[in-house]
User: What shape does this take?
Amino acid sequence: MVFDDGGWDWPLWKWKGPIVTEGRCVYGKFFAGKAGFVSKDWWPDLCNYRRASRPAPAEGSIDEAILLTLAEHGSLITRELRAACGFDGAWMRSKFDGYITRLQMACRIVTEDFVYPTDKHGREYGWGWSLLTTPERLLGQTSPPDPSPNGEGNFERRWRTPQESFDRMFEHLRRLLPEATDKQITKLIK
Assistant: This one.
């Protein structure tokens, strides 16, 4: 849409936020460092597998400082988080983005929503800034309870093992992508 003042708006830029806030998806850099959506139904398995295959941030590490900063503030847009963590010097943006990508790949940070800058007329524009948070804050507990018989005819709750989560995702993707190789499917999950 072109405005009278010569500005323009492309509504397709705005589809990401509603999918995250109203839909049943989680958004972040989850696929070889590239952004994408994961169904909230499948998120617990991805999170379970990824967290088991990537060590928790070490005490005193930059990764831990980022997570503690998010825990303190709840959610922050990337530039605010970067400043709060002291990454405001020259050439720090791309270095910081690398930490955020690694934490998203480990399913420790997700995008809660998108915040859009406004022009001098008060209209939102651009691709939007990620409002980052932890999955626990956004979704609550991230590992799924899985009913299993306890021997007395009742069911007790237990967590899937990371391998069970991997196998479950692998078989689901195998059905969805019959032409994909095992290596391609594994790359999506890992």
In short: Residues 162-176 form the longest helix (15 residues). Confidence is low (pLDDT under 50) at residues 144-157. Helices lie at 16-22, 43-53, 62-73, 78-84, 92-105, 135-139, 162-176, 182-189. Strands lie at 25-31, 34-39, 76-77, 110-115, 129-133, 145-149, 155-159.
